[in-house]
Design goal:
alpha/beta, Gyrase A, domain 2, Four Helix Bundle (Hemerythrin (Met), subunit A), six-stranded mixed beta sheet, binds guanosine-5'-diphosphate
């Protein structure tokens, strides 16, 4: 038998309101025990989904004036009876409301337990439950949009389509095996192999798109590369619009790698400000240089800064060598001064026309932002929807399904067999089902939901 759980569903800290959620077969009796309505009778299922004003009372103590919102099973988030109390959003207030609920017979919910119950009761599939977590954790607009689309069932729809194709293929092979003269499946083995390959190609496209989506969700690792004093810290500050990095006029003083989150349009970059990459005898600086090289290695986007105050030097060549083969934007900084370097000269050195900017006056920064978006979109590989399978568990299931289909292609090359259907294709079918949680063990479900936070 399931028990009744309770938790604070809103964030810690002071806020206008905060919510304590109670779910389970005893939700109404727990709620009635602690809630004293301002008017009318006690909370009842007949009046589900109607907000009631009243007080939370714990014995003789008045705890808070709240709005009670009851839901009768199965029409609730968890699919069970649920009562939500919206109280005033103070940590102590919410803690006392929760204590009162626990005192009246509820148990403190585990992290993710509400969503787990929603999944178990068929209110949402696993991809949707995970989308809830991604929606809450979204750090930029692109990630939020992807999570919202998954919550709306986009992933489920696509997986259902692909599974239907696998099942259809299996049925056709079965028919052909039952009746070798079956004209329905002419060209049998080749056609089966071809169809398996097509479904696999679709899975691989989703995987590639998912890898891009994961980067979008977590932030694109990017680094600013340039010799000391080219204006790397200044550019970072100008883009951030704040004085985060220390700007100095002495060469080689930005010694640590700083990482800043930079929002650009609907995505964000994790931008590393590297120390001047320079061959040096100075021990302290050398560490910075090595870190900077490593940062450049780990970055998916490099912003290369040429310095208009100085001629192009051997050092610029060395840095350009690191940059040129990777996704990058070539920038000529300090265009506000009558410089030592023209864009044409940079072009002749690199084969690319630099984008002129001034970290000092802000000139060219809007253009830089729009170039950043262009380069990031160019790295996305396959064209795709606005949602992604970013989650590693979902990606593993896609990979397993692709693997089984590859086996199917190989088996099909040897003719239509029972094994092709029952092993390869059914494995692919089951792997796809895992995305939605259909063939997921209890232990795995528990592990997944344990990653949720309290009250979800
Ligand atoms: P970093 O060593 O590459 O990080 O360079 P900094 O950002 O510390 O800048 C070095 C010097 O160049 C500082 O004195 C900055 O004020 C100056 N500087 C940076 N960007 C510009 C710019 O666009 N125009 C001008 N005139 N000076 C700049």
């Amino acid at each position: 038998m399931t028990d009744t759980i309770a938790a604070v569903a809103t964030g810690l800290g002071q806020a206008g309101i905060g919510i304590v959620r109670i779910s389970g077969p005893a939700a109404f009796s727990v709620a009635r025990a602690i809630f004293s309505p301002a008017t009318g009778g006690p909370l009842s299922k007949e009046e589900a989904r109607r907000a009631r004003l009243g007080w939370i009372i714990d014995g003789e103590r008045r705890i808070d004036q709240v709005l009670a919102l009851p839901f009768a099973a199965p029409a609730s988030y968890t699919g069970e009876d649920v009562v939500e109390f919206s109280g005033h959003g103070g940590p102590l207030v919410l803690d006392e409301i929760l204590r009162a609920a626990l005192g009246a017979g509820a148990r403190l919910a585990e992290p993710g337990e509400f969503s787990r119950r929603a999944f178990v009761n068929g209110k949402m599939d696993l991809a949707q439950a995970e989308a809830v977590m991604e929606l809450i954790g979204a750090r930029n607009e692109a990630a939020r949009r992807s999570a919202a689309l998954q919550l709306a069932g986009a992933a489920a729809g696509r997986v259902a389509d692909l599974r239907a194709r696998v099942l259809d293929l299996t049925a056709q092979i079965e028919a052909a095996l039952d009746d070798p003269d079956n004209l329905e499946f002419e060209g049998g083995p080749e056609r089966a192999g071809r169809e398996a390959a097509q479904i696999r190609a679709e899975l691989e496209r989703l995987l590639e798109h998912g890898a891009y989506g994961r980067k979008i969700a977590e932030g694109i690792p990017a680094a600013i590369i340039g010799k000391p004093n080219a204006g790397k810290s200044s550019l970072l500050n100008a883009l951030l619009g704040e004085d985060r990095a220390i700007v100095t006029a002495v060469a080689g003083t930005t010694r640590d790698v700083l990482t800043e989150t930079l929002r650009v349009g609907d995505i964000h970059l994790n931008l590393m400000d590297t120390a001047g990459i320079r061959e040096t005898e100075d021990e302290v600086e050398k560490i910075g240089v090595e870190r900077a090289r490593a940062a450049a290695q780990g970055a998916s986007l490099l912003l290369f800064l040429a310095d208009n105050a100085l001629p192009w030097e051997a050092e610029d060549d060395a840095l350009w060598e690191i940059t040129r083969e990777r996704p990058h934007i070539l920038i000529l900084n300090k265009t506000d001064i009558a410089g030592a370097l023209t864009p044409e000269e940079v072009l002749s050195r690199t084969g690319e026309m630099p984008l002129p900017v001034s970290a000092k006056t802000g000139e060219g920064l809007d253009e830089l932002r729009s170039r950043i978006l262009d380069v990031v979109r160019d790295t996305r590989g396959a064209e795709g929807e606005e949602w992604f399978f970013t989650n590693l568990r979902q990606q593993q299931a896609l990979r397993d399904a692709a693997e089984s289909l590859k086996m199917a292609e190989e088996t099909a090359a040897g003719g239509l067999t029972e094994e092709l259907m029952t092993t390869d294709l059914m494995d692919a079918y089951e792997s796809l089902g895992r995305i939605l949680g259909e063939s997921v063990s209890d232990d795995l479900a528990e592990e997944i939901f344990a990653k949720f936070c309290m009250g979800k």
